[in-house]
Amino acid sequence: xxxxxxxxxxxxxxxxxxxxxxxxxxxxxxxxxxxxxxxxxxxxxxxxxxxxxxxxxxxxxxxxxxxxxxxxxxx
Length: 75
Description:
Keywords: Membrane, Transmembrane, Transmembrane helix. The chain has about 80 residues and is an all-alpha fold.
């Protein structure tokens, strides 16, 4: 019997943190891209882009935590 949370529940729990990390990384990438002539991303645009891009990031974080829990249980 499986007592661990499934990956989708972990991803749902971690979505806010993953989307926040994506937003920060996008904003910093926008600042770095100024060095090669692109316009900087505003924080609002970075947050808007992080909403859909946070889904695969949250899924990856959930799968990672799921594997860590399985390893800790010795499975």
